Amino acid sequence: MFYNFLVPLAADFGPFNLFRYLTFRTGGAIVTALLIAFVIGPAVIRWLKSIQGKGQPIRDDGPQRHLIEKQGTPTMGGLIILAGIVVATLLWADLTNSYVWAVLAVTVGFGLVGFADDYLKVTKRNVRGLNGRIKLLIEFAIAAAAVTWIGAEARAPLSMALAVPFFKDLLIQLGWFFVPFGMLVIVGASNAVNLTDGLDGLAIGPVMIAAASFGLISYLVGNVVYSNYLLIHGVPGAGELVVLCGAMVGAGLGFLWYNAPPAMVFMGDTGSLSLGGALGTISVVTKHELVLAIVGGLFVLEAVSVIVQVASFKLTGKRVFRMAPIHHHFEQKGWSEPTVVIRFWIIAIILALAGLSTLKLR
Q1: Higher pLDDT among residues 306 and 127, named by residue
Q2: How many domains, in total, are found in the chain?
Q3: pTM score
Q4: Has residue 95 been placed in a domain?
Q5: How many other CB atoms are found less than 10 A from the CB of residue 95?
Q6: CA angle 276, 149, 79 (to 5 degrees)
Q7: Which of the residue ranges 12-26, 48-62, 78-92, 140-154 would you say has the lowest mean pLDDT?
Q8: Does any domain span residue 60?
């Protein structure tokens, strides 16, 4: 909004020229989202405690210490994150940019699905929440609309193509198959982040790392000079997403203040589904869907651990891990919660650096 209202006035008041620069507006989005999270956080947590009573239901099949240590902690803290992202993006981004609206739509849409799921969990005191099939159906519908929208906005030959890392000219034209592929990326990323959200601070750290990484990717693919220099496929308009990525980082930092061990609030599906959906959608816009699997490799590992565990138990009756997702496996091995969280953050940083290296290795 600042960009749209103040830049036209720059001829009369020179300092308004600052709002032309993505770097300045991204910094503004980070600080704004952070302050919003700090300001509204205590009030939101008090409100969530007042309406939830006993807090988020704790799974009986999880680590036994969680039944004692995490009992009574409210969920739906993702509302703090969503407020920071949405307000900061609306204030600092170019609101004529379709990609910004597409990502915001997925973020809010998935957030509403997560909110419904969390609400049913706390009101019915049931860990299952929203019916799984209905939840996936809604997620895929939102993702389908977003991918179709993005494809219509993108220019040929990128609109329905898959870019392959390490190859400067390789584009796989998927045609309309790109829509289901993009849907899988968005929904898969959303639910992978959801599976990672099992310990205090575990999910939000890697989300911020991935958001910062894709902020850089968005900036580079949206800048014709840098995209030509790096031999990556340029996507005009994608650079504006760096503002939204900055808002994700700022809101995540603010939320972490309340989610650090011992957590005062959990993000719940309200936060995890929306953040994962946002990352997946940004990867589709920037044509770095495969790089997301590297940058967000920790989320992939968490999701794969669940798939392997379920498949192994159904086929052989044996479990590969002591408990899935894999962060619980290490808890069962005796690692303390902060140890698991910090070590997983380190892994996320290493994977992010590996993913970013694909920008130069062509």
Answers
A1: 306
A2: 1
A3: 0.94
A4: yes
A5: 17
A6: 35
A7: 48-62
A8: yes
